[in-house]
Structures are given as structure tokens and as C-alpha cells.
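Running log. JK asked me to keep both predictions on one page so they can be read side by side. First protein, sequence followed by its C-alpha cells:
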Amino acid sequence: QTPLVESGGGLVQPGGSLRLSCAGSGFIFGYYGIAWFRQAPGKEREGISCIAGVEGTTYYTNSVKGRFTISRDNAKNTAYLQMNNLKPEDTGVYYCAAALEPLHVPTMCTYERFEFQYRGQGTPVTVSS
């Protein structure tokens, strides 16, 4: 059983929207912070948005503030990334990762060596006309 599974990616035109889902299984989802990362071709992994397990503290990288919204439903063991007004530069493989709390949410998103206990396989997002 795969601990984290992403879904919701696809091809969308600039200005369009997608909602990504990150479904967890086999662990107590609410005890873990969730991070969404983006891996674009030829670029470093980028932390897009992160959310705490229970408290709900969130973090967004500057390029997505005001366009993306992270949320979670611990009863459904699922985290979401609502992406609006998508741009071509948002193209990449999006994957989620889980880290056991307590943790510092911004650090989870920005520290390249942050250790995660679980990571999904990713879902591709292409923004193109």
C-alpha cells in the first residue's frame, strides 16, 4: 500500500484551475505536516506550499501566493492544493510529502534537506495553450 498518492494533475490552459489531492494511508495522517513540491524540467525541486497537521499553519512560496490554496481534511486522510490562475511556469510534476510533527512549517517547505517520512510518486501538471 502506497502511503501517499497524488491525483488531479493534467493539461490546462493558462488562467485555468486544477485541484490536486494527496491521499494518505497506513499512518495517522493528522499527526503529519504535508508539503507540496514541484519539480519542473531542468530545475531544482521547489517547495510550493505546506500545512501543519492539526493547527493548520500554512506556508506558500512567493510565486503562488494569492493563486494557490492548501488545505486538508484529516477525517478523509487527504490534503489538497487548489491552483487557480495557472501560468506556464507552474508546469511540472507535483508531489506531496509527509513529515511527523512537531515541525516548523516554513522550514518544511524551504529546507532542502528536510526529512520526510513519506513521499508520493507525483502527478504531472502542464499549463499550455
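And the second, directly underneath as requested:
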Amino acid sequence: QVQLVESGGGLVQAGGSLRLSCAASRSIGSNNHMGWQRQTPGKQRELVAALTSGGSSVYADPVKGRFTISRDNAKNTVYLQMNSLKPEDTAVYYCEIMVGPYTYWGQGTQVTVSS
């Protein structure tokens, strides 16, 4: 079992930056798939960014060039640096980590971008 604790969400003005963190409760290895998804009311959860098990990074088109996903294996933590935030980035952000055949989710952190 892995617990994921997210932090870093909040209220920011358009054009600002936030960094989300997602810390795992135990060592999860160095090549696991890790990612961030987001969800707004009435919509399905959507991929924001991911680090694949093959070492590649993947970004949704709306965030390319503005968001950066990274990981710190020593801290069992995945980050999402979000720059040039837009009101349409407002959502609850969830981290996900795959360990073996299982996918674990964080509790979600609210990001609100004001215009």
C-alpha cells in the first residue's frame, strides 16, 4: 500500500506560478509511471503531465511549454511546476503513481487561477 500526500495548491492570479508536490509514503522505485491529472466539476479527469516508466515526459497540449513534471527519487516525490497559469487551469489536481500492477492516487489539491 502507498499513501500519496499532495501539497502546493492554492489561489493565484493569472500569469502566476505554483508548484505541486506529491510525496509517497514509502520507496516506490525509480522508473515507475508517475503523473498528474486534473478535474473540474462536471468533467472527466484529464491527463496533465506524466513521466512514463520508459523515462519520457508527456504533456497535455494546453499545458505544453508552461508546466514541467519532475521527480525526486530520494524523496519519493513527484512535482508539477506550473507557470503562466491561466483561469482555465483552475481544477482539482491529482497525482498518480503506478507501483507494479497498482495505481495509487493522491487526495487532490485545489488550484484556482483568478483573472
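Observation for JK regarding the second prediction: The chain has a mean pLDDT of 95.
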